[in-house]
Amino acid sequence: xxxxxxxxxxxxxxxxxxxxxxxxxxxxxxxxxxxxxxxxxxxxxxxxxxxxxxxxxxxxxxxxxxxxxxxxxxxxxxxxxxxxxxxxxxxxxxxxxxxxxxxxxxxxxxxxxxxxxxxxxxxxxxxxxxxxxxxxxxxxxxxxxxxxxxxxxxxxxxxxxxxxxxxxxxxxxxxxxxxxxxxxxxxxxxxxxxxxxxxxxxxxxxxxxxxxxxxxxxxxxxxxxxxxxxxxxxxxxxxxxxxxxxxxxxxxxxxxxxxxxxxxxxxxxxxxxxxxxxxxxxxxxxxxxxxxxxxxxxxxxxxxxxxxxxxxxxxxxxxxxxxxxxxxxxxxxxxxxxxxxxxxxxxxxxxxxxxxxxxxxxxxxxxxxxxxxxxxxxxxxxxxxxxxxxxxx
Length: 393
Known about the structure:
By secondary structure, this protein is of the alpha/beta class. It is 37% helix and 18% strand. The chain has a seven-stranded mixed β-sheet, sandwiched between helices. A four-stranded mixed β-sheet has the order 1-2-3-15. Helix 6 links the parallel strand 5 and strand 6 (165-168). The mean pLDDT is 98.
């Protein structure tokens, strides 16, 4: 089918909840995609950070094919080897203690919120359930995670929202202290505010928040839905900040394109969620864990993570070397980068870059966000950067 034919059927049968770009993608290999009419694109989005090992990855394809011939799904009433093996790998590589598997980032953050509130209820009883999040954060699209998100524009339409959230300013420990009260049970944050504009938190601020949590017996909740699984050059971003959170969520890249998420708990709170307190039908099902095993085996290798950092620096240095008036800055870590441009010009720049065969997305008010496959080859990077230079320089 042509793009126009597909779009006509989409308009008739699919809810119009996305402002989709005028592209219908058909197949891909590595970090390169082709649309239904044969046009080629270098993908610097990876499905919003999901396809971390690229498209048509032979190891993921083989693992999925083998597992599909055994078990696709059996429910969490039974134990399966792929689920246990992925949990063991996550814990041994991070210093966390136990894992709950879910299906998405928002669902993982819901589970983290439940864990924090139950931890406090078990210890202190009712009345200590509030969670402090950061202004400009983003934690998901459910009714609860929308309210956890520290952006007023998301607090619309879906009233009444779940209550129990307070907001503080990023990189301002006094603002966080002021938001904490006798009702607070946890502080929740992204180490890089992704949807907010690719804004890394200051390491000293993060350590101060960790100390405040220790002082007040609050759980430190870290949302690594976008920053986790090698994206920033370490398996999880918190490992570069020199802290151990109490709870960490992950999703996006964990299964290389299969829908998967999860909640990792440290020994401080790894027994809070017991039988009957939290559950999911599809979380940790064998077919997605087969893909996750491949991803973790690849991404946890030191040389792989070093290459992610090197590619990120290569992109950053190349873009800054253009000395373009259109580029104000490049910020981020590893292969989670934001090219900062004039907010009013951004939409036109993104459109022109895509028309020339490079897929990029946006974040915040003024960032062109880059989340390429972690396996992107330098040949693909150079091709994409050459295109972007014609637009941004």
